[in-house]
């Protein structure tokens, strides 16, 4: 078993230099592959991150991952119809709070990573497409592979991720139900308050457990 | 690839008689639950929210007191390769029933692949300890009888949290006895062996999810709702075999001539609930009565 695993590991490592060769305007699949490989390579070597050092992994996500996400679009999709009723100021605060929440989730997930093999599925895309889904698979022995799919849109600043679908569930629109309930109960300000309170409670040591 | 009648088909037929009465009881129980939960509001697919929340916290309590500590100990004591081997053995034991469900859904190629998996892993993989088949290009599938019912067009029905088993839709709850009856561990006659294996499997499965605990607590405003919505969307994804329809709307735009995904999902959910209440349950009963159509 160990040998088979290390075979895959070696294969995966072999992909890394291949992937980071080109730097110009990256196609969405290349972008996803490069960022994934680069970040996982760092996580794999960093014992502090593996031990769950949140500050460290936050920094990594801030530097390497955040620039490729469109949090405004993500927040809009999570809030749903009520987005139209929010003032620009409310929208800004929603985006900030939701971004903090998502970054924490993603960072936590990263500390759980060990040496699973990530496979990048071929992308069906034409030159005219402005929205593309890049599908990846986390392979694990004895269980069905877990799909992690990134939906990207074309902007002037390159391709930006605006949805992440894990095992068939959008991590963005999965919030829509609870956000809708918060808005029905306390309006848009109520939702902002809940999100900001949640974020604050996790900044304090007892929240971090 | 032709759909030759396999011994599996006969096996199903002989077990169907035993299932009929059980299925009917479940359906009746399901209808009672539906009637009992008429008084709540909120998500149209969660009319039983009051009961569900109570059961959700009961399950959380059981998890916190027993299952999670056991899983943590299991993870601490056994080295990773051993745990992988244990997971592989249980995964292998599950493959014949997965093959059967693929067959029932008309996915003959997948069913053959699952049977091959079982044969390869049981023999060359030392009773399933090694998952050689995955590495040989026979991927593990994820099927159960609830998905089969979904593929046959049975609506999801209301969301319901079962004691110990956790989230289900009414359809999946009705399918659960079938899954258990065909389960290779649960159908072991020697009761102590069966119970031990079931406990080990549960502990193993839980240990795989330990990493999610923190994320789930930190990422959600309301854990119950997050888990519910996650479960419902994931079941749809599985029934669609990984290709559910997905539309992204743009709430910055002025025109809204397209039905936003949230709205259409609401409508779908409502239709599904109604369908199961009025038709789906009837179909299920019919299905139990006429197993002749199966082979």
Automatic annotation (TrEMBL), chain A:
Keywords: Signal. The keyword Signal applies. Residues 1-21 form the signal peptide. This is ABC transporter substrate-binding protein. InterPro entries: MlaC/ttg2D.
């Amino acid at each position: 078993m160990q040998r088979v695993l290390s075979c895959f590991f070696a294969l995966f490592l072999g992909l890394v230099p291949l992937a980071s060769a080109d730097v110009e305007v990256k196609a969405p699949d290349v972008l996803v592959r490069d960022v994934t490989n680069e970040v996982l390579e760092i996580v794999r070597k960093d014992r502090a991150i593996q031990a769950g050092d949140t500050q460290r992994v936050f920094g990594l996500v801030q530097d390497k991952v955040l620039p490729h996400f469109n949090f405004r679009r993500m927040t809009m999709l999570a809030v749903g119809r009520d987005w139209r009723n929010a003032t620009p100021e409310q929208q800004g605060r929603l985006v900030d709070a939701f971004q903090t929440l998502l970054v924490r989730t993603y960072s936590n997930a990263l500390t759980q990573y060990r040496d699973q093999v990530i496979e990048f599925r071929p992308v069906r895309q034409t030159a005219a497409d402005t929205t593309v889904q890049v599908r990846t698979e986390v392979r694990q022995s004895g269980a069905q592979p877990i799909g992690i799919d990134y939906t990207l849109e074309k902007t002037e600043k390159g391709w930006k991720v605006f949805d992440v679908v894990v095992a068939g569930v959008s991590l963005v629109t999965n919030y829509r139900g609870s956000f809708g309930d918060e808005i029905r109960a306390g309006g848009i300000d109520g939702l902002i308050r809940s999100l900001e309170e949640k974020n604050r409670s996790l900044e304090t040591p007892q929240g971090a457990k | 690839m032709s759909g030759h009648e396999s011994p599996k088909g006969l096996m199903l037929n002989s077990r169907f008689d035993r299932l009929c009465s059980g299925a009917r009881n479940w359906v009746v129980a399901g209808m009672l639950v539906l009637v009992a939960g008429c008084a709540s509001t909120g998500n149209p697919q969660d009319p039983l929210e009051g009961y569900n929340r109570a059961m959700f916290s009961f399950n959380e309590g059981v998890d916190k007191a027993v299952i999670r500590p056991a899983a943590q100990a299991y993870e601490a004591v056994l080295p990773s390769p051993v745990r992988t081997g244990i997971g592989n053995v249980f995964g292998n034991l599950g493959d014949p029933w997965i093959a059967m469900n693929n067959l029932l859904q008309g996915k003959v190629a997948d069913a053959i692949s699952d049977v091959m998996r079982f044969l390869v892993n049981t023999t060359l993989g030392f009773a399933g300890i090694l998952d050689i088949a995955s590495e040989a290009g026979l991927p593990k599938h994820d099927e159960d009888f609830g998905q089969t019912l979904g593929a046959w067009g049975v609506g999801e029905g209301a969301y319901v949290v079962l004691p110990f088993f956790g989230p289900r839709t009414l359809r999946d709850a009705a399918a659960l006895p079938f899954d258990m009856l065909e389960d290779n561990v649960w159908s072991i006659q020697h009761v102590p062996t069966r119970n031990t294996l079931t406990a080990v499997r549960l502990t193993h499965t839980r240990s795989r999810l330990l990493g999610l605990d923190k994320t789930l607590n930190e990422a959600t405003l309301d854990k119950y709702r997050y888990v519910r919505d996650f479960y419902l969307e994931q079941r749809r994804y599985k029934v669609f075999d990984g290709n559910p329809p997905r539309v992204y709307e743009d709430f910055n735009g002025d025109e809204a001539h397209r039905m936003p995904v949230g709205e259409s999902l609401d409508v779908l959910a409502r239709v599904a609930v109604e369908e199961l209440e009025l038709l789906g349950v009837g179909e299920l009963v019919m299905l139990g009565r006429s197993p002749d159509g199966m082979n």
